[in-house]
Amino acid sequence: MEMTLLVNEGCLYRCPVRNTHYNYTSHCSTPEGKPYYAMDFHSTFCIDVRKKRPEEIIKSQFILPQHLKHYKKITNSFKIVGRTMQKEWIYSTTKSYLSEKYDGNLLNILESAIPKLLSETKMYISTRNLNDKFFERITKCSKICTKCSYCSDILRKEN
Question: Most buried by CB count within 10 Å: which residue of 35, 86, 112, 152?
Fold first, then answer.
């Protein structure tokens, strides 16, 4: 079975509006040269949650470019999310994933409502703190966030 993994999806973990948001976004696609972005309930919901609890960004189901090596045992098919993004962003993000390295703000390579969040907050999450130790930790995570502060602790290192 061939499996394709989404690498830079910035959706909230277990987001209750994910499916409707993706459906809405698919209807917002426009021809080349006509960028479209509309604030909608879904994006506003996402941004509000992350402003109140920025650790939710760390909990998103993304794969960093430098961690692709771990997934190549499973598949060689990876998809970059970004149908509403500008060409420059798509090119830059694709280049990072093809080179399997990225050193910068995590929010600059994630999609969803992340670009709007970034423009409103100037939030910065360094990928240097998301190293192989981070990869080992999150891939073994029990997802019982009430008993753990790992994602919040990563953000405290930023400040």
Answer: 112
- Distance of alpha carbon 135 from alpha carbon 155, whole angstroms: 16
67: pLDDT strictly greater than 60: yes
Domain around 61: 4-158
- Cα separation, 118 vs 133, in Å, equals 26
CA distance 15 to 47: 12
Alpha carbon distance 139, 78 (integer Å)? 18
Euclidean distance between CA atoms 142 and 159, whole angstroms: 26
Give the chain's largest Cα–Cα span: 47
Number of domains in the chain: 1
Whole-prediction pTM value?
0.85
Q: Cβ distance 147 to 134 under 8 Å?
A: no
Strands (E), the chain: 4-6, 77-79
Question: In angstroms, how far is the first alpha carbon of the chain from the final one?
Answer: 44
Task: Please identify which residue in the block is written with the tokens 């090596």.
Answer: 69
